[in-house]
Design a protein that fits this description.
single chain; 75 residues; mainly alpha; 0% strand; flat
Length: 75
């Protein structure tokens, strides 16, 4: 490979079902903004709140998935 050709990088993989995507954060932030009567100048606060809520929901789902696994039979 010559120096003027860029090295190949792996193709980006599709986000998993549990991924917190830009689109999901945007949608949640918009919902929060509307619920709070559309105040001006709070874009970052609503974005961060939306991201925080989505992360907590994801953690809660993971915790529930782990706790609902069947326990191994006792001997």
């Amino acid at each position: 490979m010559s120096d003027d050709q860029p090295a190949s990088s792996p193709a980006p993989s599709a986000p998993g079902p549990d991924a917190i995507t830009f689109e999901r954060i945007r949608e949640r932030a918009y919902e929060l903004w509307e619920r709070n009567h559309r105040p001006e100048g709070f874009e970052i606060e609503f974005w961060l709140l939306a991201e925080r809520e989505l992360r907590k929901e994801r953690e809660r789902r993971k915790a529930n998935d782990g706790s609902t696994a069947p326990e191994p039979p006792s001997q």
